[in-house]
Specification:
This protein is an all-alpha fold. It is about 75% helix and about 0% strand. The chain has one domain (about 35-295).
Length: about 300
């Protein structure tokens, strides 16, 4: 065979057959590849089919509604006492605003712990059970899987907190009415409190997801979350001094009050400052989790 015939034969053999899909077509997303929407759908299926997830969601709903009822009763009893006791009346006046307005969201402190822990478990369980090998084998880039989990936990936490707060308000309405206290769930302040609280709990869940990815251990991630939102504020409250007082303002748990207050209180962050601080508490651990997820082995 001549040299020209050999070169022609080699060129023809290297040309892909028209009946076989080319690599370019596969890279462009043609075919059954793991597109982001498929990854998102698979993460949603895992989220809604796990028994532990459903239990935590149900517990959040019960806690929010239960605390709404208990706080409604406590607020009514306090208002009734204030009519007879001058000291109680002075304490009530010192709090300012409408006492009943915060009743629907009185269980936020416990909701953030439950949903934050859920965020930790969604990511840490991938590593403790070995499921991460299958997940990242199907999604080698890893980032789409993490982003899908983040979207699922953000949306679920926001919607559940909003619905639970509204139901808590409905349950508290007749209790407050029995003490001649009025609660308007459709008022601008009530809607603002509901939305900000729901965004805050969703942010806590995102922080939990990032901690679960960084630490890769359920107990360690949950304890880190508890330390950040419960232990650190108490420790800084015990420590005296201007430095500790200044640090307390920048803890994520202290960003809700400035964003929901009717009037700005001296010594607290402005609304935009509190929003930026809360956003930073979410963005920094999430970015760190993404970087470590791409660098470390499964």
């Amino acid at each position: 065979m001549s040299t020209s015939n050999l070169n022609t034969s080699t060129l023809n053999s290297s040309t892909p057959n028209s009946s076989t899909p080319s690599r370019r077509g596969t890279a462009a997303g043609i075919g059954p590849g793991p597109s982001f929407f498929r990854v998102l759908n698979s993460e949603f299926i895992k989220f809604r089919t796990l028994t532990s997830t459903l239990i935590l969601l149900a517990c959040t709903l019960l806690v929010m509604v239960g605390f709404g009822a208990l706080t409604g009763w406590g607020t009514g009893a306090f208002a009734e006492e204030a009519m007879r006791d001058p000291e109680a009346a002075a304490a009530m006046a010192a709090q300012g605003g409408d006492l009943a307005i915060t009743v629907p969201t009185s269980g936020i402190a416990f909701a953030q712990l439950i949903l934050g822990s859920l965020g930790v478990l969604l990511m840490s369980s991938e590593f403790t059970t070995g499921m991460a090998r299958s997940t990242f084998a199907a999604v080698p880039k890893r980032l789409p899987a993490f982003a899908a989990k983040l979207i699922v936990v953000l949306v679920a936490s926001f919607l559940l907190t909003a619905v639970s707060s509204f139901l808590a308000g409905l349950v508290a309405l007749p209790i407050l009415d029995s003490y001649d206290l009025k609660l308007d769930l459709a008022s601008s302040q009530s809607v603002k409190l509901l939305l900000v609280s729901s965004i805050y709990v969703a942010a806590v869940a995102a922080i939990g997801l990032a901690l679960g990815s960084i630490i890769r251990n359920s107990a360690g991630g949950i304890m880190s979350l508890v330390g950040l939102f419960f232990v650190a504020p108490i420790a800084l409250e015990i420590i005296q001094g201007d430095v500790a007082k200044e640090i307390r303002k920048y803890l994520p748990g202290n960003t809700v009050s400035p964003m929901t207050a009717v009037n700005h209180e001296p010594g607290t962050l402005e609304v935009w400052q509190a929003a930026l601080v809360l956003g930073a508490w979410v963005v920094v651990p999430v970015v760190l989790a993404v970087l470590l997820l791409k660098k470390r082995d499964v």
